[in-house]
Predict the structure.
Amino acid sequence: MAPAEGRWAPALWRACHGLMSAFFALAAVVQVNDPDAGLWMVVYTIPAVLTLLVGLNPLVTGNLIWKSVSAIHMFVCIVWAVGLAHYLLFHTQRNILHEEEGRELFGLVIITAWMSLCHSSSKNPVGGRIQLALAIVIALFPFTSWVYIYVNKEMRSSWPTHCKTVI
């Protein structure tokens, strides 16, 4: 009889990939009202597709094209996140989530964290316990954040109109 982690780990990984693929796709869709929607739709669509591919076939992370696209995308997201963090360090007037650039920064950090986790799993597609625990936390974080923000009307009150009218 296989240990519990052996039976449940692949299913949990696939569920995490499904959640993250759905999150990235949803994040791309809600950009429709943003002034720079095209750019952000691409930023979120790339990890949505890459994550969907991993969910369907975990061994795809060993593919040269998958690795190259994910590495380039992570590099761009990291550089962009560093630039946003620098900007926010000197220009933030309120809570970072009240600033559009702060929410953009969190999106880039989520993309980078998730794609790094996927990228590092190429040697062991279902990862170890620590990787699986990280995957579960990262996969649940965006959805719990969205619920918190949706419930917190005070936080949404200071947002620009294009952020308030999406969903």
In short: The chain is about 75% helix and 0% strand. The helical segments are 4-29, 37-56, 64-91, 100-120, 129-151, 153-157, 161-164. The longest helix spans residues 64-91. The CA atoms of residues 94 and 158 lie 10 Å apart.
